[in-house]
Amino acid sequence: MKIAKLLNQFRISNDPARQQAMVDAYIPILRPILIPACGYYLFVTWEHWQTQSGLMLAVFSFISTTTALSFYLFHKLLTNNQTMSLARLEFHNLAMQLFMYLNLLSYLLVYNVETRYIYFVLLAFIFAITGATTRTVMISVPLTLATLYWFSTSLPADLYAEYVSIVVATAFASVSMTGLLRHAIIRQIDARLLADELTAKARALADADMLTGIPNRRAIFEKIDTLIEQGTPFWLGIFDLDGFKGINDVYGHSMGDRLLRASVARAMDLHLEGAMIGRIGGDEFAVVLTGDVSEPRVRELAGSWIKAITAPYMIENQELSVGASAGISHFPSMGTDSTQLYEQADFALYKAKARFRGQCILFETTDSKEMENATAIERELREGNLEQELFLLFQPQYSPGEARVVSFEALARWQNPRLGLVSPDAFIRVAERSGFIQKVTAILFRKGLAELKKWPDDISLSFNLSARDISDQTFVLSLLGQIMEEQVSPSRLEFEITETAVMSDLTTSSTVLDRLRSRGCRVALDDFGSGYSSFEYLDQLPLDKVKIDRSFIRKVPHSITSREIVAAIIALCSKLNLRCVLEGVETQEEMAVLAPLQPDLIQGYLFGRPMSGKDAGQLIADQQQASTDPTELKAQSA
Hints:
Blueprint: H1 2-13, H2 16-51, H3 54-80, H4 86-110, H5 118-130, H6 134-152, H7 157-207, H8 217-230, E1 234-242, H9 244-251, H10 253-269, E2 275-281, E3 284-290, H11 295-310, E4 313-315, E5 318-320, E6 323-331, H12 338-355, E7 360-362, H13 367-383, H14 386-389, E8 390-399, E9 404-416, E10 420-422, H15 424-434, H16 437-452, E11 460-464, H17 467-470, H18 473-485, E12 493-497, H19 499-503, H20 506-518, E13 522-528, H21 534-540, E14 545-548, H22 550-555, H23 560-575, E15 579-583, H24 588-594, E16 601-603, H25 613-625, H26 630-637
Parallel strand pairs: 6-7, 9-11, 11-12, 12-13, 13-14, 14-15, 15-16
Antiparallel strand pairs: 1-3, 1-6, 2-3, 4-5, 8-9, 9-10
Helix pairs in contact: 2-3, 2-7, 3-4, 4-5, 4-6, 5-6, 5-7, 6-7, 9-10, 9-20, 10-11, 13-15, 16-18
């Protein structure tokens, strides 16, 4: 047991952190005494000049002057060198003590003055106090006391016995002083090391993500700021999981947490050299990649990361899948501070999710203007009076079979005092990205309900929902609450969704849309045919209406293929008991080709441009007056 304890003590004494702590503790003890000691030995040199001559003056002056100079240089060294090793400190400390010892020894060897024997006692006490390590004390103190004993052997018996007592007393006193001082210093060192250890653990906890164990947002941005300060080039990638929220909603947060940990494990298995992977929130991750990495290589690495984490997971006998997209920026070619680089990577990520889902997109210089505009729009969304500035226009949906307008689509518009009339595509994209879309939707929906209440009961309103809207069941319930408050029949409301709005989280979207239909509202799939998997949604989503994308309608007069596609979709909708809207019908030529296909509903400039609520009300009133003359109605609405 004792041997193990001694071995453990030996291990601790050789610990680099403990040795450095010893250095840090002894430097403040040694440094203050060096300048006074230097002054003392300069005084000794002056004294030699007063009492010595010839060879003795030269020898004694050399020794004392060298001692004074060494003390001064040692003081400079301790002042300027804050990273001195314990071995080096020990060497200089022992040299300082030996210089003091040699000054006294050389003098007594020439002038054996008994009254100066007591100086050995003083040196022993000084060495006991200033010894940086036990080794230095065990060398210098016994050497000093042995020399005192040696000199005392030439004295008469009574004086010899007295000096032997002095040697023994000094030895015990020196050991006691050394023990007390080192005990106090070691306790201070232990307390400091413990504090440093606790601080390091606290820092590690503060910089680590509690769920996955990888660096968190704070650690990532500290790394970025450090690299920028050092001028080290690096790539910053922001990765986002697609469909993760649906897994959380369907299977619970416990399953979602396990999926996150599994995706992180896969990313870490790739062993990207020079890469730091961190979680910056929710299902969003960041990768900081240093080193001389080319753009093609970055795309390759990002692609491999996406491929790895999007492969199916088997958790609790349940196969789960998520998608992933990424946006990347570069320092210093794209940005010069952490905020700018993050915004650029985040902008590229949003671009990937909106247009190139499942891919990695690099921020480009051509994106700067678009990003600048997006920033200006976001600022106005935050600071503007959206209640006053947002408004709706209404575009008719005409039924050839009934020869009248049966519905209007609500189209969002924004007139800002500083930006002017902002394009709907522009401000809706920014609102979705910045998290303001639900505020925008709530304001516009409230205004749409106010107009709908003014119309006859046989006129309905079609309202668009974004991806963020339909991914939040609580928000959708708030819209249903507004319908009940306004006492509007839910059957008069139709919610339009797009393929891109549902593709990231089909399960959640389907659940929310089912909730809307169960309350009596209808659901329409907008821009049908513009995506690669729209037919799949006819089977998986609870739909009441399909709107054929205008890209087909424009080609109908000149393309047999487009005409046959439109005819097939109309027939399919009829068999599935879905209403079908042809979007973008603008000319009589297009209508002449489409009429034989017996379209259900038409929406386009031919039957009405987007109009104000007042004009929509007038169109409805004119329609009621001209209900017996469809031709007149058509001319008025066109």
